[in-house]
Design brief:
The protein contains seven helices and twelve strands. It is 35% helix and 23% strand. The protein has a single domain, classed as Rossmann fold, CATH 3.40.50.880. By secondary structure, it is an alpha/beta fold. It has an eight-stranded mixed beta sheet, with helices on both faces. The protein has a two-stranded antiparallel ribbon with strand order 5-9. A two-stranded antiparallel sheet has the order 6-8. The two termini are 16 Å apart.
């Protein structure tokens, strides 16, 4: 399977020496589940996109410090590419920024949430089970780092996972688009260091709660497994 990783940002330079950049985080996890995968990285924030939707069998997006509504030419180009993927029924998994941009590309709306920052571990409930959710469990607790949230869903959306903080945490569109607000690629130490780097930006009370939440178990490896299952299933359905 050939996968395209649509990179939408770089990890803060001061944290890269310890934690690596986004491609390293994703490649390590993906190759645990699909060792033979051919993974191509596209630096979309530098204007690099596939020449054709068929360059890869499926695609994933990373998170980003940018908002999907920011007037950046590369964001507009990536959104247009997502529309092409949708029309071609090409498998796509969106993460955080990609989760929000996917909704926007299909007609939804994204804004900075009145609920403020989501940091540390988010605790979520699965409300609709899908066949690719194997091994099965009815909760999905992941590390998060975001202010923006989807506020209006596109018509094709089906919400699969939600919480009191985030109504649209995992969303599926048709058989080939799926997205998650959390970060299955983040580890606890990176979350801790990222929160520390944002002292003075994130309110102190929210930071304290975020740090305390890191004592909980996280389901990052499970979500990666679900993502891989989804991509395989979507690619199979497209080929039939």
């Amino acid at each position: 399977m050939k996968l395209g990783l649509l990179q939408c940002d770089d990890v803060t330079e001061s944290l890269q020496q310890t934690h690596g950049n986004y491609p390293e985080m994703f490649l390590r996890l993906l190759r645990e589940h699909i060792p033979a995968a051919d993974i191509q990285v596209y630096r979309t924030q530098d204007g690099q996109l596939p020449q054709s939707v068929d360059e890869c069998d499926g695609y994933l997006t990373t998170g980003s410090k940018f908002g999907v509504y920011d007037p950046e030419p590369w964001i507009e180009a990536l959104e247009a590419f997502m529309v092409k993927l949708w029309e071609a029924k090409k498998p796509l998994v969106g993460i955080c920024f990609g989760h929000q941009l996917m909704a926007r590309a299909l007609g939804g709306e994204v804004y900075k949430s009145e609920k403020g920052w989501g940091v540390g571990v988010s605790f979520n409930q699965v409300i609709h089970r899908q066949t690719w959710m194997e091994p099965w469990q009815n909760k999905l607790d992941l590390i998060v780092s975001h202010q923006d949230q989807i506020v209006t869903l596109p018509p094709e959306a089906q919400v699969l996972v939600k919480s009191d903080f985030c109504d649209y945490y995992v969303v599926q569109y048709g058989e080939h688009f799926m997205s998650v607000q959390g970060h299955p690629e983040f580890c606890k130490s990176y979350s801790r260091d990222l929160m520390n780097a944002r002292k003075g930006i994130i309110p102190d009370a929210r930071l304290r709660a975020g740090h305390a939440s890191l004592s909980a178990d996280i389901d990052g490896p499970l979500m990666v497994k679900w993502m891989v299952n989804f991509l395989h299933q979507a690619a199979l359905l497209r080929s039939q």
